[in-house]
Amino acid sequence: MNLQEKALCFLIKLCRFSFGEFELNEFRKFLQMGFIFTIIIGVYWTLRPLKDSLFMQLVDKVDLPFAKTLSVIALIPFLMLYTKFLGQSSREKMLLRLPAYYGVITLCFSAIMFVVQGSPEEISARSIVLSIGTKILGYAWYIYVESFGSLLVPLFWVFATDTTKAFSAEKGFPFIVAFGQIGGIIFPYSIGGLPHRLSLETDSLSIGILGLLTFTIIPLVRHFLKTTPEHLLSSFTKKNENVMLTVQSGFLEGLRLMIRHKYLLCIFGVNLIYGTILTIIDFNFKFMAGSIYEGVALSNYLSLYGSCINIVTFGCLILGISNLTRFLGIPFVLILIPIIVGIIFFGFLMFESLSILFALVIALRGINYALSGPTLKQLYIPTTETTRFKAQAWIEAFGSRSAKEAGSLFNMLLRPLQSSFGAVMGREIYLSIAGFVGFSLLILWEVNAVYLVPERKDQIL
Q1: What is the DSSP letter of 333?
Q2: Domain of 320?
Q3: What is the per-residue pLDDT across 32-47, written as a single tens digit (0 to 9) for each?
């Protein structure tokens, strides 16, 4: 046994409590996938705070719901191109090409932001033409970052799901998520908050670094494919011709599959309800943050928020919260998650403070990434390869955006309510309606969870 194998054996022992027992080659596989996911999550979680911060600077914080709405509409052609490329290329090629595209575009945005970003006074003093151009850039930046999370992250999980068997996934997927949180912890504050600490006036430096990091995904994927034993890629090494043919129908086929099968529809419902509730709470948090901070200071604060979310997620995983799916079973976890979300939502309705909202959003996102996300991804394993390839990408990409759209449409009520009834009374009415809608959705979530419990045992689509 060489030094590398001894080190891996030591890590396997450390991970045994939190994730379960791994074979040596199996652990090496998940470790490499973890490195890939670390870069993806690290870049994405640094782009997310910058997405909101730059949009609020270039456009306005009250327009955040409109940006989310537009991103849902803009995602449709993105998703159609995505499924078209999936039909023409193998999954590993897509995982090599997509980071190249995003790396180039991110570097372009870095150069543009260096010129366009400025203080609120400078932006407001621009001519009408330049002002319109600035707002268009803000919307373009917002949509671009949304597409990163909607395409590249689900593509990784489609690849991971298709190369992993059910028993292995129950311990391996939480490990990948935990490993990925390292990037989510380090990157946002260290890179996203860098311009603020260096007293720079734009976020161009942060965006440029993220563009370069995106390119590193390519050699990591190549190394993974080259060194992973074939029996650990059993599903993947099968010829792709049949899958290619079934994917030709693309975007609409994923929607058709979801509508036809209640099992997939319930998974979509869980994603939709969680995303709607999160969008409502998240909007109120960022609106309040944008009222207190501005410029690179706002980017720094939201980047700190991003790192804290991943610290909580990492802590939950290391403490073994993901073991609930192994010790208590997926049915118990499916029913428990909406109860936890309900408690968090109740806290949002009761308290109005930036610090409390900060903690509540972190808790909501952390529980999702540490527990709900890995659990829901395992629900796709009993389905066929074709279903995973089409429906999972559709549900996780367009479904999550639909949830943001639903939440954003609700958040649009705040402005007219405050205009009609005053700032205080308008917000009280807004929160009352939010409470009724939110708890109604949580009840529906529980119904979905109860349906998914027996169906998962033998559901093959």
Answers
A1: H
A2: 20-233+247-455
A3: 999 999 999 999 999 9
